[in-house]
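Batch manifest, entry 17 of 40.
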Amino acid sequence: MQAEIVIISNAPGELAAWVRPVVSELGRCDPQLRLTIALVPCPYASGREAETLRSWNSDLTVWTPQQTLRYLLMGKAPEGYRAGRIGVVLFLGGDQLFGVLLARRLGFPLLVYTETVGRWASFVDRFLLSDRTSYLAMRGRRVPPAKVILVGNLMVDSVKLRRTPHETRQGLGLAADTMVIGLLPGSKPFKVLYVTPFLLRVAELLYSQDSSLQFILQQSPFTTIAQLERAISDPRYATATGGTTGRMQLEGNQLWIVTPKGCAVRIIPPEYQYDGMAVADLALTVPGTNTAELAILGVPQVVVLPLNKPEEIPLEGIIGQLGSLPLVGPWLKRQVIAYLVRHVGLVALPNRRLGRMATPELIGVLSPEEVACRAAELLQDDFRRRQIKLELLQAMGYPGAASAIADVVGEVLAGYGVDLPSEVVRRSRDASG
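Output type: structure tokens
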């Protein structure tokens, strides 16, 4: 009997860092598994999630957020879909309530992967935890031990899966003997629009101090060149953050951004995502999955959260809806975001895991000059960068989470009488024995 795995996820970071390694591992263990990705609404979505998922694996069935909501609320399945008799719902991003609703609609057990604290415990078959902190938090909530499993950090698997170990600076069209600064504006549309000009201005300031520096900008798989071009060509976005504009320039098969003061930034395409990150001596990035991926690769980073235009930041839930109201909406969002910043603590994922600021963070109304000054200090301090690298490498854990999740999936399906022709069940039985 063919088993079905329905994976719930939402935004670019979760799809790249969580869904991709799990889909790869499940497909490797049993190519006959029927895999469906049910996307759910997310204010940070790029709009290219479904397209990107299908490019990974043509055998994947992908539901848009609208199709998922229609099925959850009205029971109307996407055209051509018929639920299997046996399966598992695997939550890998979004609001955990979506997982509860979909599992109940399908009649499948629910597995929830989380880096924080799981909810709706009475409806969840297993919680799959990323680290000891989240594991202890769940045990502290008196969730039965059989429901709580420490599997590890999926982001580590994601980086290991897609990293090309032999790729070098020369292979990316960069000089081997001068320092490389990586610019990572993120993948969420509002970050691309507002942060890209900001980081370009930081690069321009660093370039004015040392013209030998090399700059690369990592294009996310969820960001199009058209989005980048819009971000650097419309002066409104540069003005909002004190950034700078730029123009695209094609040289051979390499695409560059050139600023008005002559700073050239090489755009690294998505297929070299982790290779581009890994060759950087220092990265300038925003909070998010990027910070964890850079940490896994041991790249020192300055994490910036410019709040020069807080009313443009999307928010979830009722606050997000109220923030869209005319006149009062922008003011309300500014107040809410100011409150959140005062109480959020550390924003970089490796810093949060370590419980201290191992790599620098700059938050608030920022100027490019302020960020460039901090970056320049690190570029001149080899010892400090090595120290940060070692701390970051320790922060994110070890690979193996995707394999552990596949073990749990196999164990749950075996309990429902499904005999998978794969090593998943064998590993599960060996572990339980």
